[in-house]
Amino acid sequence: MDMPDWGATDSPPNTHVSPRYIEKSIEETATPNVVTSLLADYRGYDTLGETTVIFTAGIVCILLLRRYR
Amino acid sequence: MAEHSLILIIVIPLMASCFNILLGLFRRGFCYPLVIATLSLCVILSIFIMDGVINNGVIHYRLGGWAPPWGIEYVVDHLNAFVMTIISFISLFVAVYSKRSVEAELPGRTVYFYTVFLLLVTGLLGITVTGDVFNLYVFLEITSLAGYALIAIGRDKALLASFNYLIMGTIGACFYLLGVGYLYIATGSLNMADLGRLLPDLYHSKVVLVAFAFFAVGVAIKMALFPLHVWLPDAYTYAPSTVSALAASTMTKVGVYVMIRIMFTVFKPNFSAEMLPVTEILGWVASGAMIFGCILAIAQTDVKRMLSYILIAEVGYIVIGVSVTNRMGFTGALLHILFDAFMMACLFMVAGVVMHKTGKTSIHGFRQLHRRMPITMAAFTIAALSVIGVPPTAGFFSKWYLVLGAIYARKWIFAGMLLLSSLLAVVAFFRVIENIYFAPSCHAHDRVGQEGIVRDEAPLSMLVPLLTMAAGILILGFFSGKIVSAVIQFTVPEGF
Amino acid sequence: MINRFENIIIQTISRLLIPPIQLYALYVIAHGHYSPGGGFQGGCILGASFILMVIAYDIKETKRMISEKINTIFIVLGVIIYSGIGAVCLILGADYLDYGILNKIFSVSPAKARALGTFGVEIGVGITVMAVMVSIFLNLVSGGEHEEAQE
Amino acid sequence: MDFIISKFNYWIYIVLMMIGFYAMISKSNLVKKLVGMNIFQTAIILFFISIGSKKGATIPIIQDSHVDAVNSALYMNPLPHVLMLTAIVVMVSTFGVAVALLIMIYRKYKTLEEDEILQILRNEKWPNTH
């Protein structure tokens, strides 16, 4: 098994892309909470997709459940 | 500006679906023109993007201004632009077609129907344009959620079919997400190009193998490849006819597109073809799909259900073209994506028209319909001949490439399977065509002549897209050489 | 489908609780830059306050506060805010969702402008999540019949 | 033994995922299937979050914003958290749609057992075709 151990600090996910977010978050986005800056800024487009998903769910529930006469 | 059209093609349908609801609160009548306008804009934008790709090569777009491995990037090459153009064209014509059938089948729900319809198109376009594996998952879920709902509002046991589709589709999406997770463990990246650069050093790793297995199963569920197709026939049979036409012609094609992306961009062709027997397995599965789909299509009495099984066989054709891993086969697969989208849209539209006019979709409901609606039935016959692969129609050209690809790869069995499956499709379709043209009418014995049958053609808003599709099938075949030299030859991955 | 079940204790307590819950939800949305939180979490809490109102009182009472039409408009509004902010960035000449360009409107450094853009987006997400939670709950709990009472 | 202990997060996720998968496939009650689906998705969330953990690290909120160079080893990997926030929303939406479908099914067939629904469908099929 080539999976990294639990909590390993040198595994690829923890070394390839993510350190930049932590190191540059304050400098580039003035947001100490890295999760927020990552969610809404670095990967903001994912969050737009996420909002669209929940928008779809709301509309779908109205479409399915509302009774029509 | 050319690169901004990449994002506009997603955002315009999304915002239009929002404004659609706001409009629908006040005037219901405005929704249909808004949908048509939006989708026409999408078609124009997609042609614009296609033009840009042909002239200037691959377009990159950085969302939020972040460089690729950190932010989300849009990469549009010839393959993306090709699939995107098909989707926007088909969805425009299906939207034009939808007017009367939605009014008849779903009274009172048109506003929300069109909103979800636009969201479905947004999701499909979003899948084709993105260059990030997780972003693809998000758009896959938008597509699926909209699809579940649109199928669920159909007739008979559509609810149960939709629930089964939801369970299967969620398993598929979760497997895809697990694949993303395993790739993320192995590389730490989510960008497709970056993954493609990092992965060749890791091909010996078992994590990457597991990731590939999860991707393959997840995507195979989404595109209804043979052993995992069980959700498809029920779902497409009972869905509203508009939804069947759109979903059958685009959703499975997008699944194939995702498979090609994963196999040849994220993983390199030599991994998929040489290090693992992936393409061998895919080839056998696909030939199983062709034979099985056609045989079950013969056994059906409901035309929409028969077409669903034919669709499973068509997915088999496309996958077999990919699996022979040579230039000819791949070209044939992409051409078949284009032609099959047209053929399936046309066939399901005809089924919808018959449903709209006579209320039946069983094969016996088609009896003597060439007297009632000759133009519609002519379109059906053209599309059916194209599925079979009779020369002047488009289906012949793509099948020619597919068979040549199988022969060049020295896989005689696959070439034989292709021909056998075409023969079975002949049987399946001639049962319907015989009913249309030659079978005596159900009412023949209680009427003296055939004069009782009046011409009762489909309404114009249904007829125009139908005829466009049929004309497309007739004309596109002759331009297949041009399409190959302009677009498809650039999509063939290196090493073929 | 919900039968009116009047209980003075439950109604009083929830009447006392709902405003702090809503205030806390707004805090979670607004303070998402500095502490755990953000649009989705805050929107869920905000939606939960309305759901508490439905449970403690009944649907009609709640619909006096937030009617079906306004709720639908809220669902749409959040998505429009989000994609609108992206479109504003596009109009100002940057890429889509590139909030750094917003410093043309607000006279702050690009980094601060990014924080502002993030905040606007969080508000959009919060509004949509709140309205969708309420809408799904009302539709599920009443089987879609609540609309008939009004129109 | 070390193999199991040092990678225990993956074992937990696999066990959870198999429980969910079993429920999804073998249960005939549609609500139980849905619950199985939720367990399945939760297992994936656990899997992703456990990727991002680092020993000796804390939540990714930078404490003192005066320091120019932030030591990334002190904070957990934020990317899986973000991905899972998105995935949670997707799962909630899927769950909402599924429950809406179930309510529709119950309204139509008055039962949620798959066998009984199929029985009803089989019974009503014959009179229609003749």
Can you offer a commentary on this structure?
The complex is a heterotetramer of chains A (69), B (496), C (151) and D (130). Chain A is mainly α and 69 residues long. Helices cover 68% and strands 0% of the residues of chain A. Chain C has one domain (8-142). Chain C contains six helices and no strands. Chain C has helices at residues 8-30, 39-56, 59-65, 68-91, 110-142, 146-150. The longest helix of chain C has 33 residues, at 110-142. Chain C is elongated, with a radius of gyration of 18 Å. The mean pLDDT of chain D is 83. Chain D has helices spanning 2-5, 8-26, 30-51, 78-109, 114-129. Chain D is mainly alpha-helical and 130 residues long. Chains in contact: A-B, A-C, A-D, B-C, B-D, C-D. The A-D interface holds A 1, 3-9, 11, 13-14, 17-19, 21-23, 25-27, 32-35, 38-39, 43, 46-47, 49-50, 53-54, 56-57, 60-61, 64-65 and D 3, 6-10, 50-57, 60-63, 65, 68-70, 72-73, 75, 77-83, 85-86, 89-90, 92-94, 96-97, 100-101, 103-104.
Number of domains of chain C: 1
Mean residue pLDDT of chain C? 84
Domain tally of chain D: 1
The CATH architecture of chain D can be named as: Orthogonal Bundle
Task: Summarize this entry quickly.
The complex is a heterotetramer of chains A (about 70), B (about 500), C (about 150) and D (about 130). By secondary structure, chain A is mostly helical. Chain A has 4 helices and no strands.
Topology readout:
The complex is a heterotetramer of chains A (69), B (496), C (151) and D (130).
Chain A: H1 12-15, H2 18-29, H3 34-42, H4 44-65
Helix pairs in contact in A: 2-3, 3-4
Chain B: H1 4-26, H2 31-56, E1 59-62, E2 73-76, H3 78-105, H4 110-129, H5 133-152, H6 158-187, H7 192-198, H8 206-222, H9 231-238, H10 241-266, H11 269-275, H12 278-299, H13 303-323, H14 327-358, H15 369-372, H16 374-388, H17 394-408, H18 412-437, H19 460-476, H20 480-491
Antiparallel strand pairs in B: 1-2
Helix pairs in contact in B: 1-2, 1-4, 2-3, 3-4, 3-10, 3-14, 3-19, 4-5, 4-10, 5-6, 5-10, 6-8, 6-9, 8-10, 9-10, 9-13, 10-13, 10-14, 12-13, 12-18, 13-14, 13-17, 13-18, 14-16, 14-17, 14-19, 14-20, 16-18, 16-19, 17-18
Chain C: H1 8-30, H2 39-56, H3 59-65, H4 68-91, H5 110-142, H6 146-150
Which features does this protein show?
heterotetramer; B: mainly alpha; two-stranded antiparallel sheet; 20 helices; D: 130 residues; Helix Hairpins; 5 helices; 72% helix
